[in-house]
Amino acid sequence: MATRLEQYQHQYExxxxxxxxxxxxxxxxxxxxxxxxxxxxxxCQADPPQRHGPYWQWTRKVANKTVTVRLTPDEAAxxxxxxxxxxxxxxxIADMDKTSAKARKILLNHAxxxxx
Length: 116
Prior knowledge:
alpha+beta; three-stranded antiparallel beta sheet; 2 helices; 3 strands
């Protein structure tokens, strides 16, 4: 039967393999927007309104300010994938930190027993 430390090492190696599979990353979010124009005779001003769109936007923070960029539908699909990769990357790193903390505890207890 594997020791807990060996189990943690195995978990960590699995996380390393997952990490290697993460593609390009990007922070922010992609939004699908429908807008109204200022023309009073336009369909977007009707009741109920039929707004213009969809328009795709990528929003992120740069120097503590929100920056928004309009995207084509193809670009929006790419950004969605990259943002999902970023979330996956952060989850993997958080799991690596948790596994490392558990392994550290065992290693430190073992070191204390052998030296003291």
